[in-house]
# Entry
Amino acid sequence: MLVNAYSRRVFNLAYQFTGAFEEAEDLTQDIFLKLYNSLDKYDFQRNFGAWLLTLAKNHLIDHYRRTKWEKVSRDDFEEHLLASGPGFNPEAGLDAEVDRKLIWESLNGLPAEIRLAVILRDIQDKSYDEIARILELPIGTVKSRINRGRLQLAKILQERKETSHEL
Amino acid sequence: MNCERIEELLSLYLEGALSPKEKNAVEKHLDSCSACAQLLDALRDTCRALASIPELEVSPGLLSRLAAIPKTKKKVRFSLDFLLRPSLQPAFALAAVGLTLLSFYLFHPDKKKIDRTIEQQFHLGLSWVEKIYVRAGAFSDRLSDQAGNLVVSVKNLKIFERNEDQAF
# Structure
């Protein structure tokens, strides 16, 4: 039951964070193992989904710290999207598609904590309150991290556009 | 407001979460600063691009791996869990070094020679310890003699007698 209800959420967080499909699968498995070990520590007054995502966040950050020097690049985004659902949307236009690919590839350039905050806010559409609970941070810190992350990505996008205009 | 302060507010401006006063200040700045206006456009495109990243489906392989976890977990729980604690890592490292040295000793062609050397070294060490022990005993005797002499000398000093005289 837990697997059916939460595997998609945990896997997508892991995939969006690492950008590597197989690594995300392994991480999801590790997180569920941790979950089964920690169920007795769960405080019933807390929202279970947020508690699980906090557990996932801790595991992802630990994993990132252990392996950050091994990171090369993110998976080809489209490859997994085509197999999974709405990939290229012709109505959104080619530019939007190029932007999406560039932003996806640039996510690994963000520090882990900022990357997680941006993913939760902008990809998973969570509220600042929820993100603050998941990341166990004050809401002001969350807002400033998300702003910093977005700006870093926006500047990459801007640079790419300026370069393509010059060409 | 300078550009740096505007950058801090751009995300909240985009989300319409600023107070009317801050919103006006940002808009006023954006009218006069093309760099910040361009950054806002890029920020808008970034948020749009991030929001267009869809969720993936979990593969059937992963689902079955996840479903199998509780069973596997129970098996492992009673046998190996305590061995996987990170605090035991130094002990494992020490054990590995110990086993390597032991195998080196046990399978060495000149094992008897090693035994003899170990024995010699052991006796040498023992006699060295004995010597130190004897020297320490002698030193402690001398020290107690000196302490005794010191006490006698202090007692013989007339400082206290003079004080007593003054007191009367």
User: Anything to note?
Assistant: The mean pLDDT of chain A is 85. Helices of chain A lie at 2-18, 21-38, 48-67, 77-84, 94-106, 112-123, 128-135, 139-166. DSSP finds eight helices and no strands in chain A. Residues 107 and 115 of chain A are 7 Å apart (CA to CA).
